[in-house]
Design a protein that fits this description.
The protein is an all-alpha fold and 125 residues long. Helix content is 66%, strand content 0%.
């Protein structure tokens, strides 16, 4: 009989492999992860899930492409870091923007991105 712990371990390995294959916009979220972690790639592909979830929510609610979103999150995180004299990551910026999206259809998101940047700059998230 196979121990339950071994079955759980196999299930987790299979699940993490599935994530690596099905993660949308993997290159872009990986780039954001690498920037946030001083050039280090994720050890496990499941580390990108935290990046992918807000990334997908923003893409679903905002009228912008993948490249624009990636560059905008880098730029806004850098701006909030510099002006606020604190370290703001692209992940924090995406989470801050994503939580402000309360609609389903695409629309302009410049206002909420500015609000998110200002709140992170002030240390409020």
């Amino acid at each position: 009989m196979v121990p339950i712990a071994a079955l759980v371990a196999v299930a987790l390995i299979v699940a993490s492999s599935a994530v690596a294959v099905t993660l949308p916009h993997r290159h872009e979220v990986n780039a954001l992860y690498v920037i946030d972690h001083q050039g280090k790639n994720p050890v496990d592909p499941t580390e990108l899930i935290a990046y992918s979830m807000p990334f997908q929510k923003i893409l679903g609610g905002c009228s912008m492409g993948v490249t624009t979103l990636t560059n905008e999150m880098i730029q806004l995180a850098n701006k909030a870091s510099e002006v606020g004299a604190r370290n703001v990551t692209a992940l924090q910026m995406m989470q801050s923007v994503a939580r402000r999206i309360t609609w389903k259809a695409h629309r302009g998101c410049g206002t909420i991105m500015n609000l998110a940047e200002g709140h992170l700059e002030a240390g409020q998230g």
